[in-house]
Amino acid sequence: MIMSSDPKNPTEGATLSFADKMSYTDYLGLDAILTAQHPLSDAHDEMLFIVQHQASEIWLRLAIYELNAARDLIARNETRPAFKMLTRVARIFEQLNSAWDVLRTMTPSEYTAFRDALGQSSGFQSHQYRLVEYIVGNRNHTMLKPHAHRVDLHAALVAELQKPSLYDVVLRHLSEQGFNVPTEVLERDVSVKLPHSDGVQAVWKEIYQHPQKYWQAYELAEKLVDFEDYFRRWRFNHVTTVERIIGNKKGTGGTGGVTYLQNMLKVELFPELWSVRTVL
Length: 280
Fold this sequence. Notes:
This protein is mainly alpha-helical. Helices cover about 60% and strands about 0% of the residues. The chain has one domain: Up-down Bundle (Methane Monooxygenase Hydroxylase, Chain G, domain 1), CATH 1.20.58. It is globular and about 60 Å long.
């Protein structure tokens, strides 16, 4: 971009005609994005609800992109560039946390004015959110069912379950670096969530007790913890936002609402990285 040096004529040198050039709107596809909001009621706050969730889905799109790239790099034992991507994903979830602050400006009365227009649609049906959980290792096959009506989305989730998760790839990387990761962990069915493993915890304990000796593995551990920290805060903010707006009513998708979300708070993505802190 060429900036003008003349404060009296700030557009001097700038391209002002885009009849035959790519514009900002063209490059970002803003015509499609900014016309994708279709409120189904006359309630003023339905626009806020739609935009907040659409913006969150765009951030999840980037999180998936970065997580896949980080997983591929770690699988090739290229951890240093993966650190940047994992840091970026943590900051994405920091942004997603801030989005709840905007949604919390909506009161229960304002939400009630358009809630019936949502039908049975609900955030737990987000295939991108499910894909994030599957990529990092929380592989709940029951949650495939809400996507059965969309063959393409269901197939993408099933395909992800056939790949080693990010956590699986991390543990295989540690094994290749000489750490004593249990064989039953390395040879397990990767389509299911890895249960807590004392052997894996022992590996992380060795790393945390000797950070200077195993600096890259130590830094990798902290990148994963940093990501899950922000991810868990996002879940917590989701719970408090829902409780603030609908109390203990059932969710639009038929879940227990706050109760369902509170149960999700108990799920750990990288359990041994949290339990190891107790035994250090």
